[in-house]
Amino acid sequence: MSERYYTKKHEWVLVDGKEATIGISDYAQDQLGDIVFIELPDVDDEFEKEEDFGVVESVKAASDLYMPISGKVIEVNEDLEDAPELVNEDALSNWMIKVEVTSPDEVEELLTEAEYKDFIEEE
Amino acid sequence: MYPYIANTPKDEKEMLKRIGVESIDELFADIPKDLRLNRELDLKTAMTEAEVTRHMNELGKKNCTNEYVSFVGGGVYDRHIPSVVDHVISRSEFYTAYTPYQPEISQGTLQVIFEYQSLITNLTGLDVSNASLYDGASALAEAAFLAVDKTRNKEIIVPDNIHPNTMRVVETYLRFKNIDLVVIPTSEKGTFKKTALEEKISKNTAGVIVQNPNFYGLVEDEIEEIVKLTHENKALLIMSVDPITLGVLKSPGEYGADIAVGDGQSLGNGLNYGGPYLGFMAATNKLIRKMPGRIAGQTVDKDGKRGFVLTLQTREQHIRRGKATSNICTNQALNALAASVYLVALGKKGIQEVANQSAQKAHYLYQQILEKTDFKPVFDHPFFMEFAIQSDRSATDVKSELLKEGFLGGIELEQCNAKFKNGLLVAVTEKRTKEEMDQFVQVLEGLK
Q: Which of A48, A70, B350, B363 lies 20 to 30 Å from B416, alpha-carbon distance?
């Protein structure tokens, strides 16, 4: 598995060949507060990069989830349906969706972990 | 001088001075002159209390109340309302209560909502119900939003045999959200045409609407196939239903519908000259987070005692805001309470009885009309408690002859669709007597 990349909208993505795993950053879960519901897409749904694929609802707000890269959903983390708080507990291991990557080159446009750290320090 | 307005002319002057304008008119300077009224409102001079009473009584006399026998339906029905309904809803705790902004302090209101929801889920055979919506028409539009939001598609398919007024409301709601409303033709029999759906449905479809019984009172007979076709295309099936008919007909849940909506007027609410009524909405569990409005739930307090909470608050006001499916902030609490009391008073058997009696009486009247008069059926298909007839005379004429004899005759179908020339849609409820129906037939016979 490769390096973890980030977006400025606070999603992370791990790309392994044609497969990518997507979640939200630890910083994002901390900002959101207690997560009460995560709305995720269905398997086979297709999304473009930056398109919204779901919503995270916390006690503070509802925030859209944006695709770090384009792809077709191949798996959805169903554990989050009943236990969305898992993302608060560990945002990096509790992924949200797995997709089949349609444009692998898009990874180049994402932030590395170091770049993302700099980015959130500025925010 | 200003009995109900706290500000005296002196206060007014001071306020204007403080904000730096000369007159109240100046506050409206932004509105173009030609859009302003530019004169005083045409209001009558003040009346004394005695004059007001007399005036209101005269206005009241213009209402026709019980002197007419109604055969009008089209979604709103003259049914018997047990006196317990008015007794309960007239209690000031319910009658005067406003929407529970601090919900958990209003346990009684929440319990009413919770019990209403439980009754609606029982009736529709679906998992969850919200606290109610404005009326059946807006409930259908909200159901369309729900399907669009869930599927992320922007196309709703509807047959042209739903109530024409409901269609107008749905069109209006959808137009401003840029949702395509695809209207498909119905069959010769007046029912949903599956082949027309096959032609239009695609992976871009968000939802398919079926009304049962449909606007013409006919019982749809291909719902299973329509549900199957809809789900094969990953769209949601929305059923618009008459709650009373669910005492006998298969429920939306049994058909596999995703959302059920309808007007709850039939459940213990008066005709009310067109409103207020209530719209109900029930759906499957997986749609709960996207349902419009609020949902009350039952829980236990710290001592383990039963209590009620707003499990899902009106979504646009809390948390979801702009991402909410709907902007509805309210529910029809008092009307929903009437519906709940009605359902509880009648019970499962009572609802079946109301539905059966309505259907049997409607079929009696239908047979009598066909046997004794020149009227012919418009459709050749099983109906529930409402049917369409036609003759050589215009429905307007027929209705005015009926009115002379004290009958509200029905709905003129030609006004809804020009192809049903002289068509009259007649509804029969459990409240109609044999005498009333026989007299109704006599009037039609006399038209020969």
A: B363
The ipTM estimated for the assembled molecules is: 0.74
User: In A, what residues contact B, Cβ < 8 A?
Assistant: 37, 39, 42, 45, 55, 57-62, 64
Partners of A67 on chain B (C-beta within 8 Å) are none
> Hey, are the CB atoms on B321 and A62 less than 8 Å from each other?
yes
Cross-chain residue pair A59–B319, CB shorter than 8 Å: yes
The secondary structure of B172-216, three-state, reads HHHHCCCCEEEEECCCCCCCCCHHHHHHHCCCCCCEEEEEECCCC
Over range A24-28, report the average pLDDT: 96
pLDDT (tens digit per residue) in B80-120:
999 999 999 999 989 888 777 778 888 999 999 999 999 99
Which residue in B has a C-alpha nearest to residue A60's C-alpha?
B319
pLDDT at position B311 is 86
The Cα–Cα gap between B153 and B145 comes to 10
CATH for the B83-343 domain, from 3.40.640.10, 2.60.120.460, 3.40.50.300, 3.40.50.150 = 3.40.640.10
Residue B419 has φ and ψ, to the nearest 5°, of -75, -15
Residue type, A6: Y
Say if the Cβ atoms of B319 and A57 lie within 8 Å: yes
Chain B residue numbers with beta carbons less than 8 Å from the beta carbon of A60 are 319
Does B289 reach chain A within 8 Å, measured CB to CB?
yes
What is the per-residue pLDDT for A123? 76
Check CB contact under 8 Å for A57 and B321: no
pLDDT (tens digit per residue) in B1-28: 456 778 888 999 999 999 999 998 899 9
Q: How far is B313 from chain A (nearest CA, A)?
A: 12
pLDDT tens column, B325-375: 777 777 889 999 999 999 999 999 999 999 999 999 999 999 999 999 999
Residue B330 DSSP SS3: coil
**Mean pLDDT over each residue of chain B, to the nearest integer:** 93
CA of A89 vs chain B CAs: smallest distance (Å): 21
- With bands split at pLDDT 50, 70 and 90, how would you rate the model's confidence at B303? very high
Give B-chain residues touching A51 at CB under 8 angstroms.
none
Which one is the CATH code of A4-103+111-118: 3.30.230.10, 3.40.50.300, 3.30.590.10, 2.40.50.100?
2.40.50.100
Q: How far apart are CA B435 and CA B404, in angstroms?
A: 17
Residue B119, both tokens: 């009754």
Which of B309, B317, B323 to substitute to test the interface with A, most A CBs within 10 Å?
B323
| CATH code, B69-77+348-446 | 3.90.1150.10
Is residue B347 within 8 A of residue B416, CB to CB? The reply is no
Question: B189: buried, middle or exposed (CB in 10 Å: 19+, 13-18, 0-12)?
Answer: middle
Task: Check: CB of residue B345 under 8 Å from CB of residue B85.
Answer: yes
Q: Provide the residue ranges of all domains of chain B, joining segments of one domain with +.
A: 9-52, 69-77+348-446, 83-343
B289 neighbourhood in chain A, CB within 8 Å: 37, 39, 57
Q: What is the pTM of this model?
A: 0.87
Q: Which of A118-122, B159-163, B323-327 has the highest mean pLDDT?
A: B159-163
